[in-house]
Design a protein that fits this description.
Distance between the termini: 17 Å
Largest sheet: 4 strands, antiparallel
CATH topology of the largest domain: PH-domain like
Number of helices: 4
Order of helices and strands: EHHEEEEEEHH
CATH class of the largest domain: Mainly Beta
Oligomer: single chain
Number of domains: 2
Radius of gyration: 19 Å
Strand content: 25-35%
CATH architecture of the largest domain: Roll
Structural class: alpha+beta
């Protein structure tokens, strides 16, 4: 059974470490611009670096999760993933292999074969925001299966169960 309580929440990236990293990249870019005035051959590389920093900044700003009466929308760069409340089958926290590295992801599982799961790195958003998202999902779909690791995560960050 799904509770139909009016709601609307938007979660954006706002980790201090991400902001500091992007600020440092912009500072390095400005230093590279100044350096390229003395070494004109470096200008092409500096401009490519600047384009990369700009793309990272725009991508970081575009990450968001919107929760409303219709369901959950995850926006990442150029792609959007939407799951209606009726299409949510569970929430899992775990490690996912990405090439040669592992990333700790939150996955909102879909029970609809035409709708892909929503998965995002746990470090893109504030931990308390993710716990609140889990609480909203749990309040909206009371009998939804949530794995033990996500339940512990919610308790740790005051999303309670």
């Amino acid at each position: 059974m799904i509770n139909s309580e009016p709601m609307s929440h938007v979660y954006r990236t706002s980790h201090l470490s991400q902001i500091i990293s992007l600020a440092l990249l912009w500072i390095f870019f400005l230093i590279a611009i100044i350096y390229s005035f003395f070494e004109p051959a470096q200008l092409k590389i500096t401009l490519m670096f600047g384009a990369l920093v700009l793309l990272l900044s725009l991508w970081n700003r575009s990450l968001k999760i919107r929760v409303d009466e219709s369901g959950i929308l995850y926006t990442s760069g150029l792609k959007n993933k939407t799951l209606a409340w009726a299409d949510i089958a569970g929430v899992v926290i775990g490690f996912e292999a990405a090439g040669t590295s592992l990333s700790k992801n939150i996955t909102i599982r879909s029970n609809n074969m035409t709708k892909p799961d929503i998965a995002f790195n746990i470090y893109y958003f504030r931990q308390k925001d993710i716990a609140m998202l889990g609480r909203i999902i749990r309040d909206t779909i009371p009998n939804l299966p949530i794995n033990d690791d996500f339940a512990k995560f919610m308790k740790k960050y005051n999303g309670s169960l």
